[in-house]
Amino acid sequence: MSHEVVLQADVAGVHGTAHHEEHHHKQSFITKYVFSQDHKIIGKQFLITGIIWAILGGFMSVLFRLQLGFPDTTFPWLETVLGKWGKGGHIAQEAYYSLTTIHGTVMVFFVLTGGLSGTFANFLIPLQIGARDMASPLMNMLSYWFFLLASVVLLSSFFLETGPFSGGWTAYPPLSALGQASDGSKQGMDMWLTALVFFVVSQLLGGLNYISTVLNMRTKGMSMTRMPLSVWGVFLQAVLGVLSFPVLFAGFILLIFDRHFGTSFYLSDIFVAGQILPHEGGNAILYQHLFWFLGHPEVYIVILPAMGLVSEVMSTNARKPIFGYSAMVMSMFAIVILAFLVWAHHMFVTGLNPFLGSVFVLLTLLIAVPSAIKVFNWLTTLWRGNIRFTTGMLFAIGFVSLFISGGLTGIYLGNSAIDIHIHDTYFVIAHFHLVMGVAAFFGMFCGVYHWFPKMFGRFMNSTLGNIHFWVTLIGAYLIFWPMHYEGFAGMPRRYYDYSGWESFKQFISLNKFISIVVIITFTGQFLFVFNFFYSIFKGRKVTNKNPWQSNTLEWTTPIKPLHGNWPGEIPEVYRWPYDYGKDGVDFIPQTTPVGEDESVH
Amino acid sequence: MFITVLAIILILIVIFQIAKASEYVSVLKGEDRAFKQNNKINGALMIAFLILGLIGVFWCNHELYPKTLFPQGSSSVEGENVDKLLKITILLTGIVFFATQILLFWFSYKYQYKEEKKIHFFSHSSKLELIWTAIPTIVLAILIVYGLRSWFLFTGDAPKNAIQIEVTGHQFGWTFRYPGKDGVFGKKYFKDINATNELGLIWKDSAELSQKADPATFDDIIMGGTVYLIKDKPVRFIINSQDVIHDVGLPQFRMKMDAVPGTPTTLWFTPKYTTEEMKKRTGNPNFVYELSCDQLCGVGHWSMRAVINVVTQAEYDAFMAKQKPAYYSAFPAKDPDNIKAAAAVSDSSKPVKVASPADTTKK
Ligand code: HEM
Ligand SMILES: [Cu+2]
Ligand SMILES: [Cu+2]
Questions:
Q1: Which domains are delineated in chain B?
Q2: Cβ A417–B85 below 8 Å, yes or no?
Q3: How far is A387 from chain B (nearest CA, A)?
Q4: CA dist B250 to A337, A413, B289, Å?
Q5: Residue A399 belongs to a domain with what CATH number?
Q6: Contact state of B89 with A418 under an 8 Å Cβ cutoff
Q7: Which pLDDT does position A14 carry in this prediction?
Q8: The model's pTM
Q9: How many domains does chain A have?
Q10: What is the ipTM of this complex?
């Protein structure tokens, strides 16, 4: 805890409760909103950066879906907007591959990792465990600034003559190692690697901080088993990240050596662009092992925080305890452990040793068990509840639906004998967009709508929120559900044009339909964007400290908490956070001591 | 374009205004009443979404199933296992899908907020949790057993009588090599690649690369664009890449394998139907088996196509009889046909023995 924080808390404590702003010690705009060390401000910085990235990443997908849906139509405005990338009113091949690559990178890393866990780990951990700030506010601030630096570097690569990297978000060498193999693998790849190295640094700084804060700074009475599931979610994702990002980092370093210093870690026997390269003895598959050793945990880094937020919001709005708290925590633990043991299921058809493959099949299908347990527990939480459809709750329900739909298809892909047919087809696209892409977005929306009053002291407009929810849920299913069928036809992913293929051209009309829905759904997201920024300044004011009648600690802070969170003493905790409807009482905050005649659960 | 954007912005503004108005109305009406009304609407939408969604799932299946590969079945004997396993998986996951989605939206509807309602304080139940740990585990065990049996078949050794074909990927196309009449693929080395020797076969002695010509290369046959397979005869692909990672994707045969520079991989299967038969079976006169690259390999990835022509043994033999080893195209002077022709011109008395066409196909 920083010195400054302690001081400030004392100040607020001495002067009592009302009008905190006046007693806040002097801070310039710069230290308060820009180089802030307050976890709440840093959380908001992550969130707003994430939203901007999401809009950019989403717009990229609109552009490349335009090509997929309308390969024969010319859009003259594309040339106006994109220059040589839109020559003749078509997205150029190079542009198509750069856009898909950067879309993937941005969505997975910058939006769903940086934007999601960065926002909620920062915002919620201290507030929900009863701490004044993170263990190291300085490291926390640096974590954001490295993230922003990574963002700036990646964005700048759009202005290179040779374009941004275009070899897929997974960046497999040799394609990513050899400038001769693709224009995007020239300076674009250097910038991509630089950006991601900064990003890893940001994740490590943030992750170590989240872990040490959760382990050391809980308030009195807040045992680990009394933590809200939202804290468990971000805590365990940090553990995953801290253990796996360094491996990715190592993979990247070897790649940088292969690119610039003549080593042959990943390169062997290559004749490219009319040139014989000297490399011998390297192994291209090694990179994939290193990449997926992070890559698979990464998908859980994305989804665990979402699971936590959804559990918390669902219990609050069903006015009922989360079902099977300890099973929820245990299954998250199981996911964390198994997530490290399944990476090669992305590599079944790389020539992997078949026996090794079979071990990975076994472990992969095992990971479906904790996922299933979580779904059943959410369903039981709803059962015989008293459900309030706040916008946050709607997104929580939507999350479960999408997670089921996308999780079940993991069982197809995890079985190598099926994967050999549908690997790298649109089936995979459907799987991971439902289970990770859209579901994690839903977790994020759920969290933003629910905690917006705590963040900004105002509500978001709920009518807009409801429309946003239904448009997005319906849109997501219309876009991704039919893609399973394209996968069953073996239609490969990452193709620029299918019209020359006898085996796949029957889907041209479907592709057009999907692209139209993409445009509508993307437009619908502006309902959220408007709502978000408008409500920060003009939303309906929160008048009650605890607008959702929730049990967790963040709702015991003032409506607009200062740096330090609680004006006086940090409250003490006496119970778990899910006493909703216990003994006929609607809700019992964690700060309420256990009564004498209270039943034990 | 401009008009469209304008229209979209207008629609958004209208929605925005309505939403703001509804907020004012709710303040006037009393927040409590507005909340209850809103809750009812969302509850109804939950059940509407469920019903329309279920109809949508069936309709989507009705429209798109014929476009998948299921109706035509697998074109390889081994691939039938994939379809069988897929069907079992669809059945089992389908049951779970419908059960959980129906419960989710139905519960949301049924247990929507009502004043004075007492919830059921139900925080855990070891029995239930045990049941739903056990059921998925059992279901998954079944799928694993089925799956691994097929997996070991696919990745196991090819039958002895399999024909061998080397497949080489490069940006952005495929090259196929048959071992020729000796049945042996001659050695190759990537540093031997040049304009006339696209696979880098070791045709010549070279002190620089310290290598000796491999006579087994002299009869190897190289083809680009189209590869010929025999109906009912297993084929084994030995897969290479010259530059970046590619992938041999064979959707109709339900098979797939990466092409990795420096590390050869293999893949085998038994074609069941000739291309001609498939034209009849699918009712599509333009039907072809296509080999698609399934691993992103650069900007031309999407066009990296080859055709697979499955023919009968007799057609195959006739076709192969017409093929010339690549060595002779690179060194026309060594081609027995040319030598014979030259000899005939110079009226030499020593005829050169020419391999009979049938010999070239013997493995
Ligand atoms: C329920 C258990 C799950 C299983 C058994 C499973 C299995 C798989 C398998 C085997 C693949 C590789 C498919 C291929 O490339 O051929 C895959 C891809 C993927 N999965 Fe899952 N998955 C599960 C859940 C999840 C979850 C929860 C997430 C994310 C939150 C996720 C995200 C992804 C992503 C992002 C990819 C694609 C990566 C790429 O190739 O670009 N999966 N999954
Ligand atoms: Cu994975
Ligand atoms: Cu390719």
A1: 163-332 (2.60.40.420)
A2: yes
A3: 4
A4: 35, 17, 8
A5: 1.20.210.10
A6: yes
A7: 36
A8: 0.92
A9: 1
A10: 0.91
